Amino acid sequence: MSVLDLLKTTAGLPERYRSLPEAEMIKRVEAIKKQMGDKLYLPGHHYQKDEVIQFADDTGDSLKLAQLAAENHQAEYIVFCGVHFMAETADILSAPDQTVILPDMRAGCSMADMADIHQTEKAWDILQDTFGDTILPLTYVNSTASIKSFVGKYGGATVTSSNANAMVEWALQQKERILFLPDQHLGRNTAYALGVPLDEMAVWDPIEETLECSGPVEEVKIILWKGHCSVHEKFTMENIREVWETMLGAQVLVHPECTFDVVQAADLSGSTKFIIDTIEKAPAGSVWAIGTEMNLVNRLINTHKDKKIVSLNPNMCPCLTMNRIDLPHLLWALESIVGGNVVNAIKVDEGTAHFAKIALDRMLEYSK
User: Fold this and answer.
1) Does residue 355 carry a pLDDT above 50?
2) Model pLDDT for residues 104-151, shown as the tens digit of each residue
3) 112-225: which CATH number, 1.20.5.440, 3.40.1160.10, 3.10.50.30, 3.40.50.10800?
């Protein structure tokens, strides 16, 4: 079932939660967490709002949260403060008797929506006709459960920005070529860092059903799905040049979902965890322009007041879908559990989950 189908069948936030004072909501969430104890597990992605991340039992990037979901066996309810594909991953990796809940079904990912299973299956058939049985599919975890399942079925694995290098290296040992879904920028930046030249990469356009490449088709090693992160693509060379001109001594630190030119021009590039670790280790007084989601940038600014930190794009807003879960929705989800009427449960069907888990397990095996 797609996110759109889920939205059509899911009730929205009851009106009574919209007018509750913040202090009252905090008090009620704290009481439920205390009441439920280990029966409740609340993971939170780094991009979430402070108003919900304050209650997270664990915070992390996609890789860490996937690992934690696989390891947690005692919680009856996993209330995921993240987005839909993360909650699906938690459901796939958790036990059958555990219930995964996403407080707001509108919390999705525009990148994940750029590759659906029908497009992928059609592309696979065309690419098989072109290249034969020489392709291994990889998918970024920012993808639907059906895409993860497709990848697992055909011998591939999931990747995160934390382990993309290791997973691409692994994939190239298995087959001559890779189909990398759905983020072309992470795929391109990772492959280039591993020594694959740009003229050995091609872009698959799922709308036009064409393969775009600058070199000979037979020499293509990396086939990139034409998808992107709507947030990270907004960091530009103009932003970097402005930093160079106005912030003496500033270092530019970006996420590999940014475009190739931005990553190449930046001083450092790496996953969400890499960005956080870099700032934590940086000396007092150092100056940073960071190209990633604004909730995280603002949290780093507030946490590391001994350093000067700004967003690489001063006009950047938080990710609209990552930013959906708020305190009223979190409280509603928790009180629904206590009241015996669970809302917004995420359940991946067994057929899809079987192969998706194979893809996820392959990633987790190479990420220990």
Assistant:
1) yes
2) 998 878 888 899 999 999 999 999 999 999 999 999 999 999 999 999
3) 3.40.50.10800
Instruction: Tell me which architecture the domain covering 232-311 has in CATH.
Output: 3-Layer(aba) Sandwich (3.40)
| pLDDT confidence bin for 103, thresholds 50/70/90 | very high
Is residue 2 predicted with pLDDT exceeding 60?
Answer: no
HSE, CB side, 13 Å, CA atoms: give it for residue 266.
Answer: 26
In the predicted structure, residue 174 carries a pLDDT above the cut 90: yes
pLDDT of residue 319: 65
Distance CA 32, CA 80 (A): 15
Give CATH 3.40.50.10800 domain extents, the chain: 3-109+321-349, 112-225, 232-311
Average pLDDT, the chain: 92
pTM as predicted: 0.89
Q: Give the class (CATH, top level) of 3-109+321-349.
A: alpha beta
The pLDDT of residue 6 is: 46
